[in-house]
Design a protein that fits this description.
Elements lengths: L3 E4 L21 H4 L8 E5 L9 H14 L3 E5 L6 H10 L7 E5 L4 H10 L4 E5 L8 E6 L1 H17 L12 E6 L4 H17 L4 E6 L6 H13 L4 E5 L4 H10 L3 E6 L10 E7 L1 H14 L7 E4 L6 E4 L9 H15 L10
Parallel strand pairs: 1-8, 2-3, 2-4, 4-5, 5-6, 6-12, 7-8, 7-9, 9-10, 10-11
Antiparallel strand pairs: 11-13
Helix pairs in contact: 2-9, 5-6, 5-10, 7-8
Length: 346
């Protein structure tokens, strides 16, 4: 089994770089609400800012695709550490003016769980979380499967220094998580299992920032891992993961991104990104709601088999040789075929 070093960090105040609440991501007529009467309308309530280069940006293309179909949309952004504001923003759009209210992440769970019964006629879609209410359709992703592939890749890197010149062959890897919660630990168990599939003797270091915003702590924790010899650090820490990427560059090692394609952020240092196809899943759900086929009160799951998660190599400066990419794809096919069962905490 892989060795695991877990450092739980107390939750800290988030950085004050977020945009203010109730702000739209653009000034277009559709975003401001000036759409023709009778057209579909969907609002996305975000517990943080757009341009996070992570989860929220992964959802944005879905909203734009909904808009391109002629719908009225709006993205309401919030401060990264203000649950009271998130609650106000959600309830402000739940009175029936919007056909569908979208929100996501486990940080919004309690807020939506309390709001849904208060607004029984409002249709809600939540992503990356499950809220069991009759007017909420939940979308979740098999991050354990995508993280399994990240573990396979990271293991190949530390074992093949001839192909990865920044690797030392230490047989040590790291994972920096946002918080010690089930959804983040689903990444952890998947990553560890992928590493183990390649070489059970590789050590995996794990730590938690304590939130999803403190990039300085993300930097410090990744730095500690690189100093311990980690050749690759997988970040699953939202905005805090930007610190991991900076540490990878500063220490001339490798990192793996998450949620969106983050490969170009520190070119030459980010091997791949474990993508959640949030935008497409939201578009599919909203169109199904418009057609009356979306089942509210139920959960839709996206994994490797239905292109809900993947490991993407594009825009990484061609630092992963094709034979390693092919090896990762072979493992992915085994998961899709059911030959490999990836453990989960969900």
């Amino acid at each position: 089994m892989n060795k695991r070093s877990i450092a739980s960090i107390a939750i800290v105040a988030a950085a004050a770089l977020a945009l203010s609440g109730c702000s739209s991501d653009s000034g277009s007529e559709a975003d401001s609400g000036a759409a023709a009467s009778g057209e579909l309308s969907a609002v996305n309530v975000i517990n943080g800012p757009l341009r996070d280069q992570a989860l929220f940006d992964a959802a944005a293309p879905g909203m734009e695709k909904i808009k391109a179909d002629g719908a009225k949309i709006q993205n309401i952004q919030g401060e990264v550490s203000s649950p009271a504001q998130w609650k106000t923003n959600l309830e402000s759009v739940s009175g029936g003016d919007w056909d569908v209210v979208i929100t996501g992440t486990s940080q919004m769970h309690d807020i939506l769980d309390q709001a849904a019964p208060k607004y029984p006629d409002q249709k809600f879609i939540t992503y990356d979380d499950v809220v069991e209410q009759p007017n909420v359709a939940s979308i979740i992703y098999k991050q354990n499967e995508g993280s399994y592939l990240a573990g396979v890749l990271a293991a190949e890197v530390t074992l093949n220094t001839d192909k990865f010149p920044l690797a030392t062959g230490s047989k040590k890897l790291g994972l920096v998580g946002g918080m010690d919660i089930p959804i983040i630990n689903d990444f952890v168990v998947g990553f560890e299992k992928g590493v183990e599939a390649v070489d059970p003797s590789i050590e995996v270091l794990v730590s938690y920032v304590g939130d999803f915003a403190d990039a300085n702590k993300g930097f410090d924790q990744a730095t500690a891992m690189y100093k311990q010899g980690a050749d690759v650090v997988f970040q699953v820490a939202g905005g805090a993961g930007q610190g991991v990427f900076k540490a990878a560059k500063d220490h001339n090692r490798y990192a793996i991104g998450v949620d969106a394609n983050q490969n170009a952020i520190q070119e030459g240092h980010i091997l791949a990104s474990m993508l959640k196809n949030i935008g497409e899943s939201l578009y599919t759900a909203v169109k199904a709601s418009e057609a009356g086929t979306l089942k509210y009160g139920e959960t839709t799951e996206y994994g490797l088999a239905n292109n809900g998660v993947s490991l993407v190599f594009e825009d990484n400066g061609n630092i992963v040789p094709q034979d390693i990419q092919d090896s990762v794809k072979a493992y992915a096919q085994k998961v899709i075929d059911g030959e490999i069962k990836v453990p989960t905490t969900m």
